């Protein structure tokens, strides 16, 4: 897992179909067929402080991101029922997807060796990808910070704050 090659701009985005917290199946390429770019972000665990901050930031920016042609999906290894509680508790409006087997995490190299409090551990690597309508990665960011990430991403995308 940790020897997996990270994705870069220009790489084809691995397709996926995952269950959402709202009980439907979401397919990446179906979203792209709607003519929208997709922001795919991976986070370690629902309802933890950093992940809550990041999800709330994406929710707060969702209207303006959608107006610019982006769809946002957050992926974690949490169960759909836990994701539903996360949505309910924090009033989230972004799409939350469950990847308990870590298949999609691994396809995006968003699971592997990382440093946690100075120790090397296997875990979810907080990562964000912007997938263009052509199915290729436009931006690949690994080890992002939960706080301030959405503002930085907006800047990287050339969008107003």
What does it look like?
With about 160 residues, the protein is of the alpha+beta class. The chain has one domain: Glutaredoxin (3-Layer(aba) Sandwich). The chain has five helices and nine strands; from the N terminus they run E-E-H-E-H-E-H-E-H-E-E-E-E-H. The model has no long low-confidence stretch (mean pLDDT about 95). It is an enzyme of class 1 (oxidoreductase). GO terms for molecular function: thioredoxin-dependent peroxiredoxin activity.
Task: Please outline what is shown here.
The protein has helices at 28-33, 49-67, 80-90, 103-107, 149-156; strands spanning 17-20, 25-27, 37-42, 70-76, 95-98, 111-116, 119-124, 127-131, 137-142.
Q: Determine the number of helices (DSSP H or I, runs of at least 4 residues).
A: 5
Shape: globular
| Series of H and E elements | EEHEHEHEHEEEEH
N-C termini distance: 36 Å
Which CATH class applies here? Answer: Alpha Beta
Low-confidence stretches: none
**Residue-averaged pLDDT, rounded?**
94
Assembly state of the chains shown: single chain
By secondary-structure content and strand pairing, the structural class works out as alpha+beta
Strand order of the largest sheet: 2-1-5-4-3-8-9
Question: How many strand units?
Answer: 9
Tally of structural domains: 1
Strand content: 25-35%
The helix fraction, in percent, is 25-40%
Task: Give the biggest sheet.
Answer: 7 strands, mixed
Q: What gyration radius follows from the Cα positions, in whole Å? A: 15 Å
Q: Topology of this structure?
A:
Layout: E1 17-20, E2 25-27, H1 28-33, E3 37-42, H2 49-67, E4 70-76, H3 80-90, E5 95-98, H4 103-107, E6 111-116, E7 119-124, E8 127-131, E9 137-142, H5 149-156
Parallel strand pairs: 3-4, 4-5
Antiparallel strand pairs: 1-2, 1-5, 3-8, 6-7, 8-9
Helix pairs in contact: 2-5
């Amino acid at each position: 897992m940790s020897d997996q090659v990270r994705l870069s701009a220009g790489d084809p985005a691995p397709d996926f179909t995952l269950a959402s917290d709202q009980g439907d199946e979401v397919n990446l390429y179906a979203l792209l067929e709607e003519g929208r770019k997709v922001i795919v972000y991976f986070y370690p665990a629902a309802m933890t402080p950093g992940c809550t901050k990041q999800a709330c930031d994406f929710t707060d920016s969702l209207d303006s991101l959608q107006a610019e042609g982006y769809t946002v999906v957050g992926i974690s290894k949490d169960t759909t029922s836990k994701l539903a509680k996360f949505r309910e508790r924090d009033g989230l409006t972004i799409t939350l997807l469950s990847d308990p087997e870590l298949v999609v995490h691994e396809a995006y190299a968003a699971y592997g060796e990382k440093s946690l409090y100075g120790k090397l551990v296997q875990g979810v690597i907080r990562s964000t990808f912007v997938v263009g309508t052509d199915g290729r990665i436009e931006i690949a960011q690994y080890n992002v910070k939960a706080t301030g990430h959405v503002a930085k991403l907006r800047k990287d995308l050339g969008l107003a704050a």
